[in-house]
From TrEMBL:
It is found in: Cell membrane. This is Exopolyphosphatase. Its cofactor is Mg(2+). It comes from the Bacteria. The gene is ppx. One of its GO terms (cellular component) is plasma membrane. One of its GO terms (biological process) is polyphosphate catabolic process. It comes from Vibrio aerogenes CECT 7868. Residues 311-489 form the Ppx/GppA phosphatase C-terminal domain. It is a peripheral membrane protein. Its EC number is 3.6.1.11. The keyword 4Fe-4S does not apply.
């Protein structure tokens, strides 16, 4: 029995379109205890111009907020901090510029996550902070997107993220702050049009309890509570009365509602319009507010890192099964790739604790042939397309992009000018992983039942790689493999790399 409980501190930061949030917690053995919450209105989405570029003032507001957050988590180890960016940084064409500036302020990776991954994490945050129900519906209205999830216990089953947000709808329908019934109805109708494609599916699946999370729904709950509704639940009739009060105000500036903060007021009207559309179309009779949201979802997932890894492993295995991948061959490729990675990691300056790159190498080996379900011709491009555009729970946008890149370059010509710019991974490490994967694929190209001889891969000056075996005649006995290695050697030469084999 331990005399002192093992304690570690963890933090989750959510870079939203309207506000940045940080939650800090401590994990005492298996118990997660929230220590503090921090929120700053940044209004990032208002800085997005018609060309989808963030202006410098919006970037600066975000950086100043991160400076404050950085003070609170100074000294936290990298594995105990997760920073995720959502809709606005998904949309912005100069996101890399923001991340580069953020990196100088807060020394932890910023993950831009897809909308469906945002929705999954929101559900996780709500599910962990509410009494268990047989099934729950979770709605989260953010500055740039709205997430809708139905799940059972801790498992999301129906997940969607729509481009409906209180900041974007404020700019679109109430740009001068004037409120009319016509404008309000236009905002509601626009939200309903976005919801139209998924409403039937959600109604059919059904749920036991509906929860709303984050700022818009919290603000509505607070206003209703101040209006004399003791249970402060959100119902269609209460929202309709609230909409009448909003119209009576005539303008956002003159909107005066008990419980509504000055910070929330600029985007409140659009948020209520979106919420009304959701409640009306999904026929929600009653909605309750949940304190849990995206950042809490991140915390609970961080509480057990193995669980996070398991989610991505399940995702990869499910994709392999769906696309009828030759699992035995994929595992042989993965086994050899891992062997080469472990041999080379010290020579390639890859940090010993960086299991992330090894994980991504393993998943790329498992999934490099998903494109065969489309065609053998151009399989590497087909595989890359599938991995770039498929919903992959557990993976952030850049991890998914990197997986797509690895399988894109696992064979054929090395057109490295087509490699995307990444912020979480160094280009030199990505290239090294590509080389390892290519060699593992080539060496298993015959799909033979006969095991390969013991192979040793060494590196000199990064660009000079040598593959050798103690079995001197291993290539003489396999002329097809020898030919494949000669072809691979030519591809490497065209990229300015050097490959030798003995």
């Amino acid at each position: 029995m331990k005399d002192v409980d093992e304690i570690r501190h963890i933090a989750a930061i959510d870079l939203g379109s309207n506000s940045f949030h940080m939650v800090v917690a401590k994990v005492v053995n298996q118990d997660l205890q929230l220590v503090s919450r921090h929120k700053q209105r940044v209004r990032l989405a208002t800085g997005l111009d018609e060309h989808k570029r963030l202006d410098q003032s919006a970037i600066q507001r975000g950086i100043e907020c991160l400076e404050m957050f950085a003070e609170r988590i100074q000294g936290f180890s990298p594995e105990n901090v997760r920073i995720t960016a959502t809709h606005t940084l998904r949309q912005a064409k100069n996101t890399a510029e923001f991340i580069e500036q953020a990196r100088r302020i807060i020394p932890y990776p910023v993950e831009v996550i897809p909308g469906t991954e945002e929705a999954r994490l929101i559900y996780l945050g709500v599910a962990h902070t509410q009494p268990q129900s047989k099934s729950i519906l979770v709605i989260d209205i953010g500055g740039g997107s709205t997430e809708l999830i139905i799940g059972h216990e801790f498992t999301p089953e129906l997940v969607n993220s729509l481009q409906i947000g209180c900041v974007s709808y404020t700019n679109r329908f109430f740009p001068d702050g004037k409120i009319t019934r016509k404008r309000l109805n236009q905002a509601i109708l626009a939200a309903e049009q976005k919801l139209e494609s998924i409403v039937r599916q959600y109604r059919k699946k059904g749920w036991e309890t509906a929860f709303g999370s984050s700022g818009t729904i919290k603000a509505v709950r607070d206003v209703l509570a101040e209006s004399g509704h003791q249970d402060s639940s959100i119902t269609p009739s209460r929202l309709e009365k609230l909409l009448d009060k909003i119209v009576d105000a005539g303008s956002i500036q003159d909107l005066s509602l008990k419980g509504l903060s000055e910070e929330r007021k600029p985007v409140f009207v659009a948020g209520v319009a979106i919420l009304y559309a959701v409640i009306k179309d999904l026929k929600i009779k009653e909605m309750h507010f949940s304190q849990g949201a995206l950042r809490e979802g991140l915390l609970y997932e961080m509480e057990d890192r193995l669980k996070y890894a398991d989610i991505r492993l399940r995702t990869a295995e499910s994709l392999a099964l769906k696309h009828q991948v030759d699992i035995e061959h994929a595992r042989n490729v993965k086994k050899l790739a891992v062997q080469f990675f472990e041999q080379l990691a010290p020579e390639l300056d890859i940090p010993a604790k960086n299991t992330e790159l090894l994980d991504l190498l393993e998943w790329s080996a498992l999934l490099h042939e998903v494109g065969l379900s489309i065609s053998l011709q151009g399989v590497h491009r087909h595989s890359a397309y599938i991995l770039r555009h498929t919903n992959m729970p557990g993976f952030n946008t850049e991890q998914q992009e990197l997986l797509s890149t690895l399988v894109r370059f696992h064979r054929k010509a090395l057109k490295l000018n087509e490699m995307p710019e990444l912020t979480l991974y160094k280009r030199k490490h990505v290239i090294e992983i590509i080389r390892i994967l290519r060699l593992a694929v080539v060496l298993n190209g015959q799909r033979s039942d006969d095991p390969l001889p013991a192979l040793k891969l060494t590196v000199n000056d990064h660009d000079n790689w040598t593959l050798n075996s103690k079995e001197k005649d291993w290539l003489e006995n396999n002329k097809l493999l020898h030919t494949d290695l000669e072809t691979e050697q030519q591809y490497w030469q065209s990229a300015g790399w050097s490959l030798h084999y003995t």
